[in-house]
Amino acid sequence: MLAAIQKSGTSALACTPVAISTRLIIRRNEPAAVRLRHHGVRWRTPTDGLNRAYEESRTARSPPCSLLAPGFGYCRLLPMNPWISKAVILVGTLTLLAIRAPHGRRSRSVKVAKSHKTPLETGLLVLAWVGFFVPLIWLASPVLSFAEYPLTLGPLIAGVMCFVVSLWLFYRSHADLGTNWSITLEVREQHRLITQGVYYRIRHPMYSALILYSLGQALVIPNWVAGPANLVAFAILFTLRVHAEEQMMSDTFGDEYATYAARTKRLVPGVW
After folding, report:
1. Is residue 29 part of a domain?
2. One domain, residues 51 and 111
3. Is residue 87 in a domain?
4. Which of 24, 82, 206, 220 is most buried, judging by how many CB atoms fall within 10 Å of its CB?
5. Which domain holds residue 51?
6. Where are the alpha helices (DSSP H) in the chain?
7. What is the value of pTM for the model shown?
8. CB contact at 8 A, 34 and 28
């Protein structure tokens, strides 16, 4: 067979037999390639890889998926420009700050009646600020580029949806709380227990909003460090703070808070 290949002018190293039939009849004056094809021989040539790469790139340029369902088919696998992610993060961060700023100013205008701030609480606040700034460092600097991976459409769309829901819930939480809010564990003068609005079914809707927002960051940011940084930091803060916060509320409002806690969930209505 090798002699037949060499006679046709094709090097033996240029073709790799893949499957050979049990019978091989050599016909005179017939090209080697034709002889091999007649007897069930398939071979790979150096151009096969290039042809396959071309076909894949052509398919990638025209992915078989609908704009109505962009998360399916090849679309969710196609890499996208990471600046899209950076634009989404910038808009989300500015919106978050714009929602909180006026409520923060109003709440600081009311005197603190009792503070429950501890060294642990201070450390948790520092951790939360670190988690908040890491995505901004990724946004403005290449220092975290070693941990980047391709941005794809599916996680981007899921992350944007998390942002939309979380920012709405964040706004409603602040609007319903009014001045009965503090960035740390404090009870303000004339503090009231809020049980209406988004607080009707869950006790910590602002935590729910921030956890969902952090999850959106983890999906949108194509970086193994900056993406989950805020989610990890906030999960630690919530885990170590929530019991102390609920104890503070129980000490302040007594049976009223106990009744409220008995009929509500912490983060997800009807679940937990």
Report:
1. yes
2. no
3. yes
4. 220
5. 2-61
6. 2-7, 32-38, 48-61, 82-108, 119-140, 153-177, 205-220, 226-253, 255-263
7. 0.70
8. no
Do both 54 and 81 map to the same domain? no
Same domain, 198 and 96: yes
Tally of CA atoms within 13 A in the half-sphere of 162 that contains its CB: 23
Residue type, 112: V
Query: Residue holding tokens 């948790």?
Result: 124
Residues whose CB is less than 8 angstroms from the CB of residue 207 and which lie 6 or more positions away in sequence, other chains included: 238, 242, 266, 267
**Residue 223: phi, psi to the nearest 5?**
-150, 130
Contacts of 254 (CB under 8 A, 6+ apart): none
What's the angle, vertex CA 117, arms to CA 264 and CA 122, rounded to 5?
Answer: 105
For residues 96 and 240, what is the distance between their CA atoms, to the nearest angstrom?
Answer: 23
DSSP state of 11: -
Same domain, 241 and 127: yes
Domain membership of residue 223 (yes or no) is yes
- Selection from 115, 238, 109 nearest residue 184 by Cα: 115
Q: What is the pLDDT along the chain (272 residues), one digit of tens a residue?
A: 444 444 444 444 444 444 434 344 444 454 544 444 444 444 444 444 434 543 444 444 444 444 334 444 444 456 678 889 999 999 999 999 999 998 888 888 888 888 888 999 999 999 999 999 999 999 999 999 999 999 999 999 999 999 999 999 999 999 999 888 888 888 888 889 999 999 999 999 999 999 999 999 999 999 999 999 999 999 999 999 999 999 999 999 999 999 999 999 999 988 88
Q: Do 116 and 191 touch, CB atoms closer than 8 A? A: no
